[in-house]
Amino acid sequence: NNEDESTETVETVTQRKEIATTEAPVTSLSGHIGDQVSFDAYHPNIDKVVKCIVKHNDEQYEIYPNMEAKNIIYRNRGDCSFDISRLNWEHAGPWTIISHTMQDYVETVVENTDNFELFVYQ
């Protein structure tokens, strides 16, 4: 458990929650929650998406991938997949997946998530 690392992430997400609420429309999501998390999400501005928030079975959680998240893949402008191997679970809100903008994607997770935030509900 990387509690020290995850605490900083939680605080950052909390600060940006209001921005996400006002600027991010709801879109479609299909996914599996288990030892790993794999999501397919669609949004017309997927190149600006930096966070997906989901609910599962009336339970609300926040999922924060650490900065070692693997296999964050954008297949095209309107389609993206997240395969996160290590997660920190927080029982304080919706499940949250933080990714980076498509234009800044190389092979690492970009820390600046100010551009856009996307709510996605299962």
Structure description:
Strands 1-2-6-5 form a four-stranded antiparallel beta sheet, with no helix packed on it. A three-stranded mixed beta sheet has the order 8-3-9, with helices on one face. The protein has a two-stranded antiparallel ribbon with strand order 4-7. It is 17% helix and 32% strand. It has one domain. The protein has one helix and nine strands, in the order αβββββββββ. The C terminus is likely disordered. The chain has 122 residues and is of the alpha+beta class. The longest helix is centred in the N-terminal third of the chain and has 21 residues.
What's this model, at a glance?
The chain is an alpha+beta fold. Helix content is 17%, strand content 32%.
Q: Can you tell me the residue ranges where pLDDT is under 50 for at least 5 consecutive residues?
A: 8-122
Shape: globular
Instruction: Describe the largest sheet.
Output: 4 strands, antiparallel
Number of domains: 1
Radius of gyration: 13 Å
In the sheet with the most strands, the strands line up as: 1-2-6-5
Span of the ends, CA to CA: 27 Å
Helix content: 10-25%
Run of helices and strands? HEEEEEEEEE
Strand content: 25-35%
SS-based class: alpha+beta
Count of helices?
1
Query: What is the β-strand count?
Result: 9
**Average of per-residue pLDDT values:** 39
